[in-house]
Amino acid sequence: MSQLELDQFDSTVHLRLIKREDNSDLRDVYVDSIQSQAPSFYNNSQIEAWAGLANLPSFFERPFDEGTGWALIKRNKIEAFALRYPLDRLALLYCRGRSSRKGFANMLLERIEFDCAEEGIQFLSTEASLLSYSLLIRRGWVEKSIEKIEIAGISFDRYRMFKRL
């Protein structure tokens, strides 16, 4: 969904660059996204471990300090965000449960992909969860491999993916 389409749909929705002061709100979106949407894909132990990463100060600091991204604002609240770190990698893409399935993640991805193309980046990579996997496939991303990771001793599968821009 383009910005124009969203403007016609809801004039209270817009994108803006992520600011350092957004850190707390972005953590809230991250946890909300996992707790509200992951139960369809993950068990309680996985959800608890994954959401718990938000409590680690180092988890967000480096991507926020050295990366770049966009927050989707609706009625003056951050409802979703996408962050690149490093600049050729989609590091974080999260949307509150109440705002999921409204085209917001698509809007953020369009902007991230546009920025990369403008910067001369030819490929964008990511490690996707089951939450974002099908969206990325629909947007032309390609699965490169499946890998197993552990978070707090709990096993997860995630998908290494890329997109040619």
What does this structure look like?
This protein has 165 residues and is an alpha+beta fold. It contains 6 helices and 7 strands. The protein has helices at residues 3-9, 23-37, 44-52, 57-66, 104-118, 130-138; strands at 13-17, 68-74, 77-84, 89-95, 123-128, 142-151, 154-164. Strands 1-2-3-4-5-7-6 form a 7-stranded mixed sheet. Helix 2 (23-37) runs antiparallel to helix 3. The longest helix has 15 residues, at 23-37.
Question: Which helices and strands appear, and what pairs or packs with what?
Answer:
Elements: H1 3-9, E1 13-17, H2 23-37, H3 44-52, H4 57-66, E2 68-74, E3 77-84, E4 89-95, H5 104-118, E5 123-128, H6 130-138, E6 142-151, E7 154-164
Parallel strand pairs: 4-5
Antiparallel strand pairs: 1-2, 2-3, 3-4, 5-7, 6-7
Any descriptors?
seven-stranded mixed sheet; alpha+beta; 165 residues; 6 helices
Brief account:
The protein is an alpha+beta fold and 165 residues long.
Largest sheet: 7 strands, mixed
Strands, total number: 7
Number of domains: 1
CATH topology title? Aminopeptidase
How much beta, percentage-wise? 25-35%
